[in-house]
């Protein structure tokens, strides 16, 4: 499994999944540029290229690609641009499909807080956002989330980066790009991702996720005839932390049906 974390988070968000599923699958995760311990310049298009290079370096093909929130964009583009790489795709709490839809993250307000009051004020503000709020009473999960937010540098906001600014619709191609070719320098439009996606797709939302995210997840699931849509109970926007048992079981059930046996250790 290739695991792609969400915005303001890092590879540690997948700890509950690695702890339970590493005995069944090879779990590969990394800090996307500008998050966690990465000092790179944040870029969704670069994230796609980085993931492809990482899989090439590790000799990985036929993997399950799991992307959470902002990472869902990377997962879908990766699967569409490198069809030999992904045997199936899981997206969790994806953002709106259309670039012209308004974001549910107050980026302008957060950027102004960072500019005028600094990174600690930004982190405090983000901790109160429903997208960064846990419902579970499990103290370990709260501590894990706090560590990740405490590492968020705000570099993408300081640079003026927004996901929508990195979206471009590529010219259609008659033949899919092989796994070893360079990734595009811009992200494809979301509708293009699923139009060329020919692998099983699982779309997840926490049952208490924002309405905008549940609506986006349902819309994404409807674009693919092979898609499955699941609401993770007793969970918000971070269902892998809020309810890891149900989350992991849902993933395990999906992978048991769709990840080729030769891909298992």
What does this structure look like?
There is one protein chain. The protein is of the alpha/beta class and 265 residues long. The chain has one domain (2-263): Alpha/Beta hydrolase fold, catalytic domain (Rossmann fold), CATH 3.40.50.1820. Helix content is 41%, strand content 11%. The chain has helices at 15-21, 44-58, 70-81, 107-117, 119-127, 139-151, 155-158, 190-195, 211-222, 239-242, 244-258, and strands at residues 2-4, 28-29, 63-68, 86-92, 201-206, 227-232. A six-stranded parallel sheet has the order 2-1-3-4-5-6, with helices on both faces.
Quick rundown:
The chain is of the alpha/beta class and 265 residues long. It has helices at residues 15-21, 44-58, 70-81, 107-117, 119-127, 139-151, 155-158, 190-195, 211-222, 239-242, 244-258, and strands spanning 2-4, 28-29, 63-68, 86-92, 201-206, 227-232.
Topology:
Blueprint: E1 2-4, H1 15-21, E2 28-29, H2 44-58, E3 63-68, H3 70-81, E4 86-92, H4 107-117, H5 119-127, H6 139-151, H7 155-158, H8 190-195, E5 201-206, H9 211-222, E6 227-232, H10 239-242, H11 244-258
Parallel strand pairs: 1-2, 1-3, 3-4, 4-5, 5-6
Helix pairs in contact: 1-11, 2-3, 4-5
> What portion of the residues fall into strands of 2 or more residues?
5-15%
- How would you characterize the largest beta sheet? 6 strands, parallel
Cα-based radius of gyration, to the nearest Å:
17 Å
Query: What name does CATH use for the topology?
Result: Rossmann fold
CATH homologous superfamily classification: Alpha/Beta hydrolase fold, catalytic domain
Instruction: Give the assembly state of these chains.
Output: single chain
Count of the domains: 1
